[in-house]
Design a protein that fits this description.
- The protein is an all-beta fold.
- The protein has no helices and 22 strands.
- It is globular, with a radius of gyration of 17 Å.
- The relative contact order is 0.19.
Length: 233
C-alpha cells in the first residue's frame, strides 16, 4: 500500500519568517487521518528566512532529526551544545527528560529543512545532541542510514527508536531499492526531483505513506534527492 500525499494537500502556514508545510498534524493543523505513521510523528517542510529562526523552547520525549536541504541551521541548547549544520548534513536531538534549544538561520539566504520527529521507544533519559556531514556522493544510487536506532547502522547518528532515517540521490533513470518488510512503516519524500515508487508517481516534496510492501523500488524520472523514514508500528 502506497498512499501519495501531494505537496498541495499538506497543512501549514506562512508566518513571513517561516513558511511551514506539515505532512502530519502539527501546531494549528489537525487532520485525524494524518496524526502519525508508525512511530513517525512529525515531518515539517520548513523554509526559514535569512537572519531569523526559532527562539529557545523546550522539548521532551522525542527524537528530532533535522535534514538540511539548502543553507544552514545554527543550533544552541541548554546542555551547552552549539553547532552549524549545512546543506546535506544532519543533526539529531534526543530530547529525553527535557531540553531547551534554539535553531536560527544565520545565513544571508533562506534555509530549507525537513524536521522529522520520531517517538522514542522509552520516555525519559539524558538528553543529547549531535550532528554529522553525509556527502551526497556517498549516497549516489543507494540509500544510506543518516540516523538510526537499529543494529548495524554504526555510521549513522544514533536515535532512541527502532527506526532509521535514510538518504539517497538518484540520477534520472537510476533505480534504488530498499527492503522495508511487511511489519514496518515507510514514509518517503523527494526533496527534489520526480520519482516513481512501486508504480506510484511522486513530485518533489510530495509524501508517500508506505505499508505492507516488502521492497520499495524507486526510479528517478529526473535527478532526485530522497529522504526515507522506516519505523516500527
Amino acid at each position: 500500500m502506497i498512499e501519495r500525499r501531494p505537496f498541495s494537500s499538506l497543512g501549514g502556514e506562512n508566518h513571513g519568517w517561516l513558511d511551514a508545510k506539515h505532512h502530519f498534524s502539527f501546531a494549528g493543523y489537525h487532520d485525524p487521518a494524518r496524526v502519525h505513521w508508525g512511530a513517525l510523528r512529525v515531518w515539517n517542510d520548513d523554509t526559514i528566512a535569512a537572519g531569523t529562526g526559532f527562539p529557545p523552547h523546550p522539548h521532551a520525549d522525542m527524537e528530532i532529526i533535522t535534514y538540511v536541504r539548502e543553507g544552514a541551521i545554527t543550533h544552541q541548547d541548554s546542555l551547552g551544545n552549539k553547532g552549524r549544520t549545512e546543506a546535506g548534513d544532519v543533526q539529531v536531538m534526543s530530547a529525553g527528560s527535557g531540553i531547551r534549544h534554539s535553531e536560527y538561520n544565520l545565513e544571508p539566504v533562506p534555509t530549507r529543512i525537513f524536521q522529522i520527529w520520531i517517538i522514542p521507544d522509552q520516555q525519559g533519559g539524558q538528553p543529547s545532541w549531535g550532528a554529522k556531514p553525509f556527502p551526497k556522493a556517498d549516497r549516489s544510487g543507494q540509500f544510506v542510514a543518516l540516523a538510526s536506532g537499529l543494529a548495524g547502522d554504526d555510521d549513522a547518528l544514533p536515535i532512541r527508536s527502532r527506526a532509521r532515517v535514510l538518504g539517497a540521490t538518484l540520477k534520472a533513470g537510476e533505480t534504488a531499492e530498499y527492503a522495508l518488510g511487511a511489519d514496518r512503516y515507510g514514509y518517503l519524500v523527494p526533496a527534489t526531483g520526480r520519482v516513481e515508487v512501486n508504480g506510484v508517481g511522486l513530485e518533489a516534496r510530495d509524501g508517500a505513506a508506505i505499508r505492507d510492501e516488502a521492497v520499495i523500488r524507486i526510479t528517478a524520472q529526473e535527478d532526485a534527492e530522497l529522504v526515507l523514514v522506516d519505523t516500527a508500528g
